[in-house]
């Protein structure tokens, strides 16, 4: 479950066409209490970078884990672009990778938890994106 985030870095071009924001996000992961105790954490942190280019009409979202990055590597990339044949449509591409190096003998459990979390977050992510798209439309930004 998403707990909160802090803005780490933000950039806006002079004309406002490019907006890049990087956040450090905090999650409460649905993991067994024993695993959290062994790992010594209650929350996990990841970094998310959103790059909006209004000129090219693209949004790129990159995310990677900070917590346990020496043991587990999670990378995700999402890209929203205008459909080449219909400018009223949006194309969405998503890729993710998970590499578990060593996790106190709980590699299989961690992999299952990560996949469960990722799958449940896909639906939540879609809802969040649709919410922000509606906000942009209300502000008159439709490109």
TrEMBL record:
UniProt cross-references to InterPro entries, sorted A to Z: PRELI/MSF1_dom, Slowmo/Ups
Gene Ontology, cellular component aspect: mitochondrial intermembrane space
All copies of domain PRELI/MSF1, residue ranges: 1-141
Coiled-coil positions: none
Official protein name in the record: SEC14L1 isoform 18
């Amino acid at each position: 479950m998403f707990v909160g985030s802090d803005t780490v870095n933000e950039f806006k071009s002079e004309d406002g066409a490019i907006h890049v924001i990087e956040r450090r996000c905090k999650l409460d992961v649905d993991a067994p209490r024993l695993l959290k105790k062994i790992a010594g954490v209650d929350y996990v942190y990841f970094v998310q970078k959103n790059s909006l280019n209004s000129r090219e009409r693209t949004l790129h979202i990159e995310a990677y884990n900070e917590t346990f990055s020496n043991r587990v590597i999670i990378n995700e990339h999402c890209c929203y672009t205008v459909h080449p044949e219909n400018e009223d449509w949006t194309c969405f591409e998503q890729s993710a990778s998970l590499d578990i190096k060593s996790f106190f003998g709980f590699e299989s459990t961690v992999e299952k938890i990560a996949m469960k979390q990722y799958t449940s977050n896909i639906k939540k992510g879609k809802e969040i994106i649709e919410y922000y798209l509606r906000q942009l439309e209300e502000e008159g930004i439709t490109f």
